[in-house]
Amino acid sequence: MFRGTFTALVTPFRNGSVDFTALGKLIEAQIAAGISGVVAVGTTGESPTLTHDERETVIRTAVEIAKGRCAVLAGTGSYSTRDAIDATQRAGKLGADGALIVAPYYNKPSQEGLFRHFRAIAESTSLPITLYNIPGRCSVDVGADTVVRLTETCRNIVSIKEASGSVERVSELRGRLPDEFTILSGDDSLTLPFMVVGAVGVVSVASNLFPAEVCSLVRAFESGEAKTAEKLHRQLFPLFKALFIEPNPVPVKTALGWRGAMSDEVRLPLCEMSETNQARLRKALDEFEHSR
Question: Does residue 291 register a pLDDT over 90?
Answer without folding.
Answer: no
